[in-house]
Each structure stands twice: as C-alpha cells, then as structure tokens.
Amino acid sequence: MEQELRLKREAAERAFEAQAEKDRTLMRLEELRFLATSTKDLDDDAYWIKKQKQLIKNKMRNDLGDEDDEDEDE
C-alpha cells in the first residue's frame, strides 16, 4: 500500500515536471517569436517593442548563465 502511494506520488511529480517543462518551452518559443518581430514599419510602438526585446535577451542570457552554473556543479 505504501509503495503504491509512493509510486502514485512519483508519477504525479513527473507529470507536474513534464507540464512545467512544456510551459517553459512554449514561453521560450513565444519569446523567440517576439524577438523576430520587426519594428521597421512601426513608429509609436517601436520603442516599447525594443525595450521588451532587450528584457527577453537579458533573461535568456541569465538563463544560459544559470545552466552553465548547473553544469559546473556536476
């Protein structure tokens, strides 16, 4: 009985992690798509789009730095 509960809990944890990874992947794809947005023909919104692009780039740099730190720990 205890082992069955442990297996169910582990399965639920794996499902939760899989969904979280899927969400992170989708967010990254949306960010990459946004980075590809051209501001060439936009006057009013170009400034804000460029600011948002810079924030995304900074976040990605930080994420890459975190991954490098994890690799060093192993």
TrEMBL record:
It comes from the Eukaryota. This is No apical meristem-associated C-terminal domain-containing protein. It comes from Tanacetum coccineum.
